[in-house]
Design a protein that fits this description.
five-stranded antiparallel β-sheet; three-stranded antiparallel β-sheet; alpha+beta; 134 residues; single chain; 2 domains; Multidrug-efflux Transporter Regulator, Chain: A, Domain 2; globular
């Protein structure tokens, strides 16, 4: 499973590293130490970060006014869901407060090895959402 440093998680959540550290210190997102000796960098499991990103986005949408526009068409984030059918697949990415869903072929998802907790970038062109594994 993929894991992330607190700084990487902060970038994907669209917050400062200090904010991400405070959330980790408060136990809002579980962390563990690299190396098992308690002295290494703090890391966040990809699945834990994906769940936290979804929860955070839902809370943020409830508290803030809805966003009217996006600044860019590239949304780096974390994969929060992968649904695979016989021919097609659906991949959801939480990019800060934005949730993007891409419909693509099952073969593409398998070739890219996409799974919940992985870092990815959603690129939006017109009404299509493309996924880049990052």
């Amino acid at each position: 499973m993929q894991h992330y440093t607190v700084g990487q998680a902060a970038r994907m959540l669209g917050v400062s590293p200090d904010t991400a550290r405070r959330w980790a210190d408060a136990g809002k997102v579980p962390t563990y130490r690299e190396g098992g000796d308690g002295l290494g960098r703090r890391l966040i499991d990809g699945r834990d970060l994906a769940a936290f990103a979804v929860d955070l986005a839902q809370k943020t949408q409830e508290e803030d006014d809805p966003i009217q526009t996006s600044v860019r068409n590239s949304f780096p984030g974390i994969i929060t869901a992968v649904k695979i059918g016989d021919v097609s697949a659906q991949v959801a990415i939480q990019a800060g407060r934005h949730r993007l869903v891409s419909l693509l072929t099952r073969e593409s998802v398998e070739e890219m090895g996409l799974e919940v907790g992985m870092q990815a970038t959603a690129r939006v062109k017109s009404t299509s959402v493309h996924i880049d594994r990052t």
